[in-house]
Amino acid sequence: xxxxxxxxxxxxxxxxxxxxxxxxxxxxxxxxxxxxxxxxxxxxxxxxxxxxxxxxxxxxxxxxxxxxxxxxxxxxxxxxxxxxxxxxxxxxxxxxxxxxxxxxxxxxxxxxxxxxxxxxxxxxxxxxxxxxxxxxxxxxxxxxxxxxxxxxxxxxxxxxxxxxxxxxxxxxxxxxxxxxxxxxxxxxxxxxxxxxxxxxxxxxxxxxxxxxxxxxxxxxxxxxxxxxxxxxxxxxxxxxxxxxxxxxxxxxxxxxxxxxxxxxxxxxxxxxxxxxxxxxxxxxxxxxxxxxxxxxxxxxxxxxxxxxxxxxxxxxxxxxxxxxxxxxxxxxxxxxxxxxxxxxxxxxxxxxxxxxxxxxxxxxxxxxxxxxxxxxxxxxxxxxxxxxxxxxxxxxxxxxxxxxxxxxxxxxxxxx
Length: 416
Fold this sequence. Notes:
Elements: H1 5-27, H2 46-51, H3 58-62, H4 79-86, E1 103-106, H5 108-117, E2 122-128, H6 138-143, H7 149-165, E3 168-172, H8 175-184, E4 193-197, E5 203-208, E6 218-222, H9 227-232, E7 237-239, E8 242-245, E9 256-260, H10 266-278, E10 283-287, H11 296-301, E11 311-314, H12 317-326, E12 330-334, H13 342-350, E13 367-371, H14 380-383, E14 388-390, H15 407-415
Parallel strand pairs: 2-3, 5-11, 9-10, 9-13, 10-11, 12-13, 12-14
Antiparallel strand pairs: 1-4, 2-4, 5-6, 6-8, 7-8
Helix pairs in contact: 5-7, 10-15
C-alpha cells in the first residue's frame, strides 16, 4: 500500500524532534568538533553526558564530523602530555658526538668498567628509563621491569661512579629514545646504559726493553703518535721515549704477553682479552693491519677487561719481534707441537739454535705467545722467526677434519 505524502512528512518531523531531544544535552557543553578531548561546560553533569547518544546518519545529514572518544592514555599521563611527546622534535635520530673519535659503550658491565678504570676520557652518560618510571600508580608500577638485587646494585654503582668522575648524565624515556639506543648499540642489548667516551688507549711501540730480573718493570720504546693519540694514551707513563707497562705478576715470574696475528672476529678478540686478563697476562700486542679493531662489540665481549688490559700497538711486527728478541724476549707460536715444520727447523739451524721448550720458560725469560688467525693460523714468515712452539696435542689425530681448537679456547688452555 503506498504511503501518503502527509504520512511521510509526519514521520520526518517526528524524527527531527527525537534528534533534537538527544542532542540537547550535548549542545549545553562546548564540544569542539573533531577534537580529541572536549572542554566541558560547568553546567553539564555526569548523568547528562551519559545521555548523549549519536543518531546514525545525523552527522552526515547535518554536515558535521563525528565526535571521537578520547584515546587510550598511559597511566600517569594526560592527553596534552601525550600529544607533546608525539610532536616532540627534540629527540635526535642518533646520539651526538662530542669529538670525532668518540665511541658509544653500551651494556651494564662495559659502562661500569669504563667508569671504574677511568683510562678513557668520559664525555656523557645516557640512561634509558623504563616505561612508567616515576609514575605512582599500580598499573605503571606493574609495567616496570623487575630488577634483581644484583642488577639494582650495579645500576647504583654506575650512578655513583659517574657522579664521582663528574660525567654529565642524561635520563631519557619514550619509544623514540629506545630507537636511538638500539641504533647506538647496533641492535645489541644495552641494558638501558650508553656511555660516550674516547677509544681504548693503545700505546704505539717499536720494541720491548730488556729485563735483568723477573721483578724489573716492563718498559717499551714508544713509536710516533699524533697529538690526539697522545691525549688518549696519557694513561701510560711515558718519559724519554720509554713507556712503563703496569704489571701485577708474581715477583718470581718474568712478564708474559700475547701477540694477536690477524685475529679478525671481534667476539673472539674480546673473549681472548677477557681470558688473558683473568689468567694474568701483562699486555696484549695488536698489529697495524689484519687484526680486528677494538670495537664496542669486542669491548662488550671482554666483559670490561679491555678497560684494564694494557694494549700495545705495533706497525711493523717483523722488526718488533727481531728487536725484542735481541733484548732477551722469547716468542712462541701457538700451534700444534707436530707443526714444527721443515722451514722452522731450517731457520733455527741456520741461527745455530734449538727450539725452546715451553715448560719453565717464564722462570727464565720474558715471553710473548703469538696467536694466529681463526682459519689459517700463524703466518709463514712468523714461524721462521719464533723461538719455539706452544700447543695442545690432538688426542684424536686420526680424524683430520677436526685438527684445531677455536682460537679463544686454544688461548685459554695454553695460558692455564
